[in-house]
Amino acid sequence: MTDIILETRNLHRRFTSGGGLLSRRTVIHAVNGVNLQVRRGETLAIVGESGCGKSTLARLLLRLIEASEGQVIYDGRDLTALPGPQMRALRAEMQFIFQDPFSSLNPRMTVETIVGEPLLVHDRLTDAQRRAKVGDLLARVGLRPEHADRFPHEFSGGQRQRISIARALATSPRLLIGDEPVSALDVSVQAQIVNLLEDLKADLGLTLIVIAHDLAVIRHMADRVAVMYLGEVVELAPTEALFTTPRHPYAQALLSAIPVPVPGAGAERQVLGGDLPSPANPPPGCRFHTRCPFATDRCRTERPALADVALGARNGHQVACHHHASIPTPALPTARAGSRSPASERRFALWRAATNTTTNKESTHDHP
Amino acid sequence: MTAAVAAPHPAPKRAPNRAWKKLRANKAALVGTFIVAVFVLLAALAPVLPIADPTATNWGAIRQPPSVTAWLGTDEIGRDIFARMIWGGQASLMAGVVSVAIAVLVGVPFGLVAGYFGGWTDSIIARTTDALLAMPFLILAIALAAFMGPSLTNAMIAIGLSAVPIFIRLTRGQVLAVKTEDYVEGARAIGLGHVRIMARYILPNVLPPIMVQATLTIATAIIAEASLSFLGLGQQPPAASWGSMLNTAKNFLSQAPWMAIWPGTAIFLVVIGFNLMGDGLRDALDPREH
Questions:
Q1: Nearest to A179 by CA among A93, A39, A61
Q2: Does B28 fall in a domain?
Q3: Do the chains contact at A108 and B205, CB–CB below 8 Å?
Q4: Which tens digit of pLDDT belongs to each residue from A167-206?
Q5: Which one, A100, A111, A262, B116, has the greatest CB density within 10 A?
């Protein structure tokens, strides 16, 4: 298939710590045999709780850290085997947006230098050309040209994230990976940045991989979602399929934890027992079996592979669970509407009427 | 891409040199710079100033208190202290600045490489540094100076090399802290090479504490030169340096206190001057502080 821009094959990453004279070496298996295919032009979200290896996976995809095992194929080239100079040249095509906008910009560089830096490496431009291009990029992400002379500390979190995005766009990349690009921002600013990323993706034909733990953001942005648990992808599905019919027990628990802004609709939340097992000592078999309400003996010994939910499933919904066929799909509270009281229903109607008259495309994005 | 470049856009204006502006607004830094400038000027102009011969002895006027003929008095063999102060300033300032320059130029790159690359490179450099730091600074300087032979130049090199481990350790520690910042990983994600990342992303962010350490070490180096001179390993008699003057003066503290007061005051002022200057420079170079 030619529409695959990025693919991982049995990707592993282990971190070792300790191993001194007296301490025992601990090995943390942060990413354990991940096989993913990212289609050109799509938005793929990777979700999971803290410590499940999603940030590690994101860095592996761009070879910001080295893989312990396995391959990352970008456009037919194996990144894990590429020599240094070729890898650096290829970085023009793939860019990264960091979570924390307060530590991802060099405090001693002006915005112009920061955004112009990738151009300095990858494009041969004169100073004047580069300055003009930086001005264009700043305008593109909604900043003013005079911001170019300022330092990062003079900006708010949202503006800093815009600077990061401008820098990421400088070399006209084809693949953009965001490691929780909005989770450090205020909710109102999150919406702006999410909309900006979507507009850019549409205008520039980008492929977007977004790491996130905010399921609302994912539902809004992503075409497909990969759910990770303890370094493994346990479910991979088109966004709507995942949000309506999650098949993996972990994904079901994750989705049932979404707060629903409807009075009286918060029932049936599945609370998982126990804590996330230590990745230094993961359980054998299915890694989720220690917390899974449906676990059997088979789950404790045999690791399930990621496989199609149903034979000939057209939408590519895949799950890694021995018992996915027999586990009931819970009714998710998000599907229910109309349970508002008559009074609140009237107020919503008024509000809807008001927003429709002052038609503003952006403000209606997150309408419930 | 070329279309985007060609698009007309008001090019952002260059920022005025804000570091220089901030330095000028900082009174303490200006005072420090002024003090250092006065001493440097006096030392540099020593050959053309109308002052007495700093080595001419006068056995009829030994240990004279300050007077109209000898402004700052005379020493134990009748030499004019004012002339010796100015000529000695040359030696002391050079010893301070040159030795620290050697220490910074050698120590910072080693610390940078050790901290940035880690692994075996780091182990070798850091363990060697630890071993060198186990020896007292002055003992190391004396040993090196004795090994290279007595002269002011050798003393400066010896003091500089002895101060290298201080800068390696300081730089390495700072690099380890800065290395984990996202912007360093961001630089790699852009496709920058190691040298460029070290020069543009790490060095500027580790420099402030190094600069403060350097100004403090200038003071230490001036005093170390005094000690080496006292042992005959630094400035060679009859040429003067503040340190050697101070060392001689300590034998006559009760009879001729002025012999100690002037070089002591000079060292004190120069050290204060360098420290104020260093603090001001650090603040001026940090874009976050206003």
A1: A61
A2: yes
A3: yes
A4: 999 988 999 999 988 888 888 888 888 989 999 999 888 9
A5: A111
